[in-house]
Amino acid sequence: MIEDNAENLFPGFEALWIGTPTGRWFARAGGPADAPALLLLHGFPQTHAMWHRIAPALATHHRVICLDLKGYGWSDAPGSAADHSAYAKRTMGREIADVMERIGHVRFALAGHDRGARVAYRLALDEPGRIERLALLDIVPTAIQWERIAASPETNPHWPFLAKPAPEPERVIGGDPDAYFEGLLREWTGTHDLSAFAPAALELYRQGWNVPERIHAMCEDYRAGGPDGPDRAADQADLTDGKTLPMPVLVLASSDYLDKDKPESALAVWRRTFAPGATGRTIASGHFLAEENPTETLAALTAFFRV
Fold this sequence. Notes:
- It comes from Methylobacterium thuringiense.
- It holds the Pfam family Abhydrolase_1.
- This protein has helices at residues 2-9, 55-58, 89-102, 115-126, 142-151, 158-162, 168-174, 177-188, 199-209, 212-224, 230-241, 266-272, 289-292, 294-305; strands at 14-20, 23-30, 37-41, 63-67, 108-113, 131-137, 249-254, 279-283.
- It has 307 residues and is α/β, with parallel strands linked by helices.
- It has one domain (2-305): Rossmann fold (3-Layer(aba) Sandwich), CATH 3.40.50.1820.
- It has an eight-stranded mixed beta sheet, sandwiched between helices.
- α2 (55-58) links the parallel β3 (37-41) and β4 (63-67).
- The longest helix has 14 residues, at 89-102.
- The radius of gyration is 18 Å and the shape is globular.
C-alpha cells in the first residue's frame, strides 16, 4: 500500500494531522519530544517525502517536523481570492507559525527547499523571534529571481507559465499531469532522469499533482510569487527598507541547477540582500539536493543546526 510505503520512508516518525482555522495540515514528526524543534519545508512539485533520506538522521538530535505545504501533499488545498493572498508566502508563514504553536513549538529552527524556502525566509523576515537558525536550499529571493527572468527570459520558464491567469496553466497541466511534472523533475536533476527519486516518494508526488485542486493550488503558489504578486512586493518593500535576517543563515545551492553558469552565486545574492552574514556552500547536485546528494546535504545541515 502507498500509505505503508510512505511510513517506511520515515521509520519511527508519527503522522500528524493539525487542524487550524485556515485548514488542516499534514506532517510527519520524529526524534526526541524534548529535543530542539527543526521544521523542514519541501518544494515544488513535491511533498514532505522529499526529506526522507535525511530527516531520520536529523532526528537524532532534533524533534524534526516534515510538513506538507498548503495545497501540496495531504495538507488542505483551499481556494484563493483574486489577489492570490491565500498562497502569499507571508500568509503561509503566519499559518505555519500557528501550526507549530499548536504542536508545542513557539521557537524552532527552519530549513526549506525551493517553494518551502520562500515561505521560510518570508516567515523569518516577518517574525524573526520565532526562528533560531535558517537554512535555505537552492533559491534566491523572489525579487531577484524575477530580475534574472527579465534579463534572460529562457531562465525558469515555468515561473511565468504557472503564474498565468487561471485556468490556462491548470488546463494544460491537467491534460497529462505526470508528463508535465515528471518532465520538470527530469529537467532539473543532474542526471536528467528520475533515478534520484525513491519509488515510494515519487508515488506520493504523483498522488498530489494528479488532483485538480492541487494543480490549481500549485499555480496559485506561483501566482502569489508572480511579477505583480504579493511575494515580490513584500521582497521589494523589505529590500527598500534594508531589512535583513538577524538569525544565522545557511545557503545551500546546487552545482548543476541554481549555481550553474551564473555570474553571481546564490550565496553572494543572499549576502547582498537579506542575509549579509550568511554562510553556505555549493552541493554537487541538480536541484533536488536532499535526494540527489543526501550525504553532502545532511553533513551541511547537521553542522549548521547542531550548535
